[in-house]
Each structure stands twice: as structure tokens, then as C-alpha cells.
Amino acid sequence: MTAATRSRLDRLVFLGPATALLMLFYVLPVIVDVAIAFTDMGRNLEVTRVTTENVARIFGGDRRLAQVLTNTLVYVVCTLTLFNVGYALLLALTTTALPDRAGAFFRSVWLLPRMSPSVVYALLWTWVVAPTEYGLLNQIVAGIGMPPLDLKSDAPMLVVVLANGFIGASFGMIIFTSAIRSIPQHLFYAARADGANGLQIVRHVTLPQIRWHLSFVTLYQALSLLVSFEYIWLITDGGPFYDTTVWALYVYQRAFTSGQYAYGAALALVLVAAGIVAALVLWRFFDMRALLQRPRIEVS
Amino acid sequence: MATVELDKVEKRFGEVVALEPVDLAIRSGEFLAILGPSGCGKSTTLFLLAGIYAPSAGEIRFDGVRINEIEAKDRNVGIVFQSYALYPHMTVAQNIGFPLRLKRVPIDESKRRVEAIARLVRVEELLDRKPAQLSGGQQQRVALARALVKEPQLLLLDEPLSNLDAGLRLAMRGEIRRLQRELGVTTVLVTHDQIEAVTMADRIVCMSKGRIEQIGTADDLYARPASLFVASFLGSPPINLVEGTAEDGAVRLGERSFAANGSGPLPQRVVVGIRPEAIRLGEGPIRGRILDGEPHGREWIWLVESEVGALRVVEPGAAPRHRAGEQVVLGWSESLLFDAADERRLQMPGPVPS
Ligand SMILES: Nc1ncnc2c1ncn2[C@@H]1O[C@H](COP(=O)(O)OP(=O)(O)O)[C@@H](O)[C@H]1O
Ligand SMILES: [Mg+2]
To answer: pLDDT, tens digit, for every residue of A205-250?
Structure first.
């Protein structure tokens, strides 16, 4: 076998399976989605004509979309900055500064929601914010002599952000914790001897050292928040009215609840496009290329 | 420049005792070396001085003032780590200027001081590079500049030369010594390399297993070691240690008996230390046979099986004067006598063949 054939064969062997999976689970669904988006497919899966109606509806016909878009932005930006990155970073910084065992304890507490089934977790939140006096929050509120609250009606987006944030923070926390742990201890010692206090060490040593991890978590979590809706669906089901309906949930409602498959497909297409754009923007903004280093092992 | 005192300072990490209570006084402007094998507590001592570790017991004083409770950032101590610990995301100039930036020194003054110190350690050409683009020796100089730029009252060096190649190490030894003299800063150098300690320091603290074995000049440690440990840690090739017994004022080594040189009672079991360079081949009453020889540039090291035991002998001269298997006679002019039980040196000269 010549070196050239071998090299070609290796390429096939190493890249083949990944490419096949990518095709099957990513490219193919997108193609199917595009195809359906330009038809009039409904619940009976019947296609009678090819049309651009669905796309036109997105750009003007659907008056709810403005609200859904705003909800999505509020939901993604708030959950991401407050919890998935902000709180995760705070947790990682504080728990790595604690003695090992105490730090591990607090991290495990924040991992618990991640380990419980979604439905159980959602039910838990339903109970926490339940408007009756049996809700956990209202039991506390009653304890300090205030009238019961109905957060699910009065501040539904807050409930949605909290519920997603409590579970979402653990991902960043774990990544940031291991990133902080892998910073050579001597850098912290040097900073202290150079005259830095705790905050200055975070700002001048820790954050610059974990900036690739920050970019990665931001990028990855932004995209997963954009397409996730299961907790919203379980806790508020997008309500009251459309107050907590985010784009992904709206896609689901149109397609599967109302049976407008074709319109749902067109809406999903926007999500795909948004995802690609977000990825490209973040890629440029954070110089993600540096994250994907040159290979450490060579395959000839 | 500061004087430094350690008063019964002790450091434990949970069960591990890294440093047993030690007393140490460092003079103002002195260059002190802490010498000892890996794991003996040298870095721990240094980190205690820097304020990176807090002592488990005892008191540390700078200029007579207790500083136990003063944080590292407020001690005005410059430290160079074995790994250099340069900030990878900062340029050389930013690394050196970091201590000044934290002190809110005005930008132009900071720039001036960074450039001045960079010239002093000869890295003024490298100010715009990142640490990853520097060689080990250059990183070492930058780390030194960062430690010196804030004009510390105490300079701490943790094995600063151990990652350099031999030539560079030689050059940097002189350079650090020169800088220290120029600045007059009280300096503590940690090293496991006796040559470094001997050539650079005014005084040497020899440590073993978290204890100070001896404090003194290089000559004190070499000629009058307090213990077997100090005797065998200093000197290259290492001192010959021969176990013997003492009875009726005589010391018995192997098949030979020697008159004890001093007065006073001798312990039953003794160890006699004979420096390889104190032994003469070809003259003396002890018989032996050459087992092996190694050339070491301008000298030869011979391994001799003698009546008193196996001995290493240094003989000057590039050409070998013996060969393996040859019968020789030998003697020595001085030796050290230790108590085998507590491994301390006895206050009397060791036996010499007459
Ligand atoms: N942070 C630490 N935690 C636990 N043990 C430590 C720590 N630092 C040092 N030690 C222990 O203390 C002893 C002395 O260490 P060190 O001062 O680093 O030695 P040296 O610098 O002389 O090689 C060693 O036994 C080491 O394992
Ligand atoms: Mg050390």
C-alpha cells in the first residue's frame, strides 16, 4: 500500500464515523426541516402544495412572534449571565477557595438538581412557587407575616429563569472549578507576594487564565438555552398567556399542539439559523480557534 | 534592609511536620543560603518568610517587629519561584510592572522603573514578549526583575537556578551575587546544590528533615560539621565514613587501631569521616588495593579497598598515576570523629595514622 492510499484510507477510517453521525443527526434533519417548511404539511402529514406562506408568516403574519422573540432574549441573556456563567463562576471561585471538603460539599449541593429527573425537578419548582399557602415560598413568606405571593402569575419569567439557572449553573461550575484547579499554585503565590488582594488575584490571574473556559461555557450554554424549553413547558407551559413562551417552546406548540407541522418547521429553521449565527459571532468574538488547539498526536 | 528572625517557628500540614521549631537570625544585607535535600522543608521556610504560609507556632520578626499576622501582599518581600511563576498572559514588561501596578505607581514612573530593572537583569530587549517565548534563563531573569522592582526589604529565591543548564547556572550564580551586592538587599537562597550555597552565600543553613542541622560559613560546615549529615552533604566527592569502635583510648577501624587524638571519654561506637582530598596515596602506613578509578577532568577519583575499609581518594593531575588492581599504601592528615549513636561530631580531632 502506498503512503498516499494509506493516508486516504486513514482519513476515511478516522473521520468516517463522525461524518456519518453528523449527516444522520444534524444535516439530514435540517434538510428535512427545510423541505417541510416550504409545504403545507399538517397533522395528517399530507402535502398538497409547495409554498412560501410559512416563511411569510414569520416575517409579518404572526403578531405573537415579537413577544416570543423578546421572551427568548430575556430568558437566554438573563439565565446565561446571572446563572450559567455568572453564578457558576462565583461558585467555582468561592468553593475552590474553601477547604477541599467544604468546597466539594457546596459543589455537590449545586449538582443535585442536575441529577434529578426533569419532571421531578419541575414539580419541585411548581411546589416552591405554588400560589397557595402550601407552597414553600409562601410558607416562608407567611412566617414573616406577609401575604402569599403568586410568582407564577406575577413574575413568571423570574420563575423560569430561576428554575433554569439553578440547574444550569452546575455545568459552568464544574468546568470553571477544574480550570481554576489547573492553574499552577505558584501563580497565586506570586500574585500574593506581588501585593495582590483576593479580588485582584481573581481579576489579574484567575480570570485571564480561564478565559477559554469562559468562552466555551458562554457559547455552549447560549446555544443550549436557545433550544431548551422542557422546564418552561413543565412549569408554566409558556403562560400565563404567552408571557414565558420562548421560541423553542413556540415551535413545539405550533408544530405538535396545533398540528401546523410546516409552520413549526419554518420556525425551527430560524432557530437553526440563529444558532449558526450565534456560533459564528462567538467564534470570532472569543477567538475560539485558540480553544481548538493543534492536534497533540499526529495521524499520518 | 531588614533583619529577619525566626523564633521557634514551626509548620505542620495536618499530620505532616514540615518544619520542626527552628530558630534563625538573618542579618541586614546578608546573603543566606538554606541548603538541604529535597523535602527537608526549605521551601516551607521560604514561604513562611514570604507570608504565603502561616506558621503553626512561633514568631517571625522583620526588624524586630512581629509580622506573623501581616499578609504576604503587605510584607514587601520579593520572591522568585523554582518554576518562575510568570503570568503567562502578560508580557515581560507587564509581568515586571505588576507589583507596581498593584501599588498604583503612576504609569510613567512605573515604566521607568521597569526599564531600569530590566536593564539591570539584562532583559531590556524582551519587554514585549510573552513568557512562553523566552528561554529558561530569560524567564529566570524576568522573575528576578519582578521580585526586585518594588525594592523589597527581603529577597527570597527558591532554587532559582535548578532549571538552567550548567553554563547558564554558572553565569547566573555570579549575576545574582552581583545584583545582591549592588542592591544590598537581605537575601535568602534555597538550594539543594552545595556549590551554589558555598559560592553565593555569606552563611549557610544546612537543613535535614525539617530541622536545622547547622548554621555557619561554608568553611564552618566543611571543616567543622556539626553532624554526620552535614559532613556527608557537603564536599564532592562525599566524605568517607568508616564505622569503628573505641576502647581504652584507642579507635579501631577495620583491622587497624589508632590512638585517640584527644582527651575525654569516647562513646563505644564511633564513625570516622575522612575527606577524599585529605588522603595521600603512596605515603603512609595503611595498606590497600586500587579497585577502580574515574577521571574527573584535572583530577582522578580512586576507589581503594584498604585495611580500614573502602575509601574514595581524590588525586590531582589529569594523567592516572595508578591502575586497577595495584597495591598501594596510604595515609591521611586529618579526620573527623562522630558519635555513631546520635550522629553528632565529637569535640576532638579524629584519628590519624602515625
Ligand atoms: N502544602 C503542603 N501540604 C502538605 N505537605 C506539604 C506542603 N508543602 C510541603 N509539604 C511537605 O513538607 C515537607 C517539606 O516540603 P518543602 O518545604 O517543599 O521541601 P523542600 O523545598 O526542601 O524540597 C515535605 O515533606 C512536603 O511533603
Ligand atoms: Mg522546594
So the answer is: 999 999 888 888 888 888 888 888 888 888 887 778 888 888 888 8
Please tell me whether residue B18 adopts helix, strand or coil conformation. Answer: strand
* The three cell numbers locating residue B154: 527581603
List phi, psi (to 5°) of B329. Answer: -115, 155
Q: Over pLDDT 90: what percentage of chain A?
A: 17
Q: Which residues of B touch A189 (CB under 8 A)?
A: 47, 50, 52, 72, 79, 81, 85
Residue A179: predicted pLDDT: 92
CB of B39 within 6 A of ligand 1: the answer is: yes
User: Inter-axis angle of helices A88-97 and A100-115, to 10 degrees?
Assistant: 150
How are strands ordered across the β-sheet holding B154-158? Answer: B77-80, B154-158, B186-191, B31-35, B203-208, B211-216
Query: What is the fold of A67-291?
Result: MetI-like fold (1.10.3720)
Residue type, A21: L
Give the relative orientation of helices A185-193 and B42-50 as an angle to the nearest 10 degrees: 40
Full-model pTM: 0.82
* Cis amide prior to B37 (ω within 30 degrees): no
Residues of B in CB contact (< 8 Å) with A are 47, 50-52, 71-75, 77-79, 81, 83, 85-89, 98-99, 102-103, 146-147, 150
- Number of residues in chain B: 354
SS3 category, A37: helix
B340, B243 contact by CB (below 8 A) = yes
Distance from CA of B169 to the nearest CA of A (A): 22
Which of A33-37, A125-129, B175-179 tops mean pLDDT?
Answer: B175-179
Q: Determine contact, residues A298/A234, Cβ cutoff 8 Å.
A: no
Chain B: give the shortest CA distance to residue A212, in Å. Answer: 12
The beta strand positions in chain B, using DSSP E, are 4-13, 16-26, 31-35, 57-62, 65-66, 77-80, 154-158, 186-191, 203-208, 211-216, 240-247, 250-253, 256-259, 269-274, 279-296, 299-306, 309-316, 327-332, 336-339, 345-349
Neighbours of B4 (CB within 10 A): 24
For residue A271, pLDDT beyond 80: yes
Cβ atoms within 10 Å, residue A287: 12
CA separation for the pair A258, A270 (Å, rounded): 19
Q: C-alpha A245: how far from its chain's center?
A: 16
Give the start-to-end residue ranges of the domains of chain A: 67-291
Mean pLDDT score, A164-186: 90
pLDDT of residue A164 exceeding 90 = no
Three-class DSSP category at A104: helix
How high is the pLDDT of residue A286? Answer: 67
Query: Where do the DSSP E strands lie in B31-181?
Result: 31-35, 57-62, 65-66, 77-80, 154-158
- Encode pLDDT of B98-123 as tens digits: 999 999 999 999 999 999 999 988 89
In this predicted structure, the answer to whether residue A297 has a pLDDT above a threshold of 80 is no
* Region of poorest pLDDT, from A173-177, A235-239, B127-131, B285-289: A235-239
Q: pLDDT value at position A1?
A: 64
- Whether B21 and B11 have beta carbons less than 8 Å apart is answered as no
Nearest CA in chain A to B145: A194
**Is A204–B150 a contact, with Cβ atoms under 8 angstroms apart?**
no
Q: Whose CA is nearest to atom 2 of ligand 1?
A: B13
